[in-house]
Fold this protein.
Amino acid sequence: MGMSLEGQKVIMVPYMEAHVPKYHVWMQDPALLQATGSEPLSLQEEYDMQLSWNEDPLKKTFIVLDKGMVEGKFVHGGPHVEAMVGDVNIYMNDLDDPQLAEIEIMIAEPKSRGKGLGKESVLMMMAYAVQNFGIHVFRAKIGESNGSSLSLFRKLKLPDQPNLMTLPSSFHHEALAQGNIGVGSDRAKAGGAFAVVW
Ligand SMILES: CC(C)(COP(=O)(O)OP(=O)(O)OC[C@H]1O[C@@H](n2cnc3c(N)ncnc32)[C@H](O)[C@@H]1OP(=O)(O)O)[C@@H](O)C(=O)NCCC(=O)NCCS
């Protein structure tokens, strides 16, 4: 079982088989497909995709849980489908710079938008990527018409150019400072905003 990351508003868990049916329903929505630049997949293709996310060393994904929707106590290793509201991904696919990661965020459930979950998930993923993969530059490719996503990344005070935002190498210090990751063999709050669990 992979790691889970706990923040103030979200818990980020590995993409598990049990998440696939709900994820597949989300990705039939034309608006979400357009916003994320995705192609619709069949259910079987989505199951194959879930496996590939866990096997490919050049990409990493977490399913975002809205902490306020977790029923009962959070159980590490449990899918908590009732609370799944989106996902956050990185791709280390730049041939010239293996320490550059493209980052994507989706909060698919409308009722969980506008509550800071997207922003916290992006910051936690960045801090995770710096610590675990030595990433020093992040990129987000955002459509010009995607006002909410542009606004989210601009709130992180990143320099931008049309369709592409690149974080300066100094940014990870900010992400780490805000994240203050703790690492432990049990769910351990390390006195910071979020903790790492596996
Ligand atoms: C874009 C998206 C990830 C934002 O997630 P979210 O959880 O609703 O955003 P947050 O609540 O964390 O907001 C972060 C900042 O973005 C801004 N923002 C978010 N939604 C906004 C909207 N609809 N209009 C204007 N600004 C918005 C807010 O100003 C907020 O800043 P604040 O913290 O100072 O209030 C979410 O709407 C989404 O998944 N949309 C569809 C998929 C998508 O577009 N993904 C991005 C592909 S690059």
Remarks:
- The chain has a mean pLDDT of 80.
- The chain has one domain: 5-170.
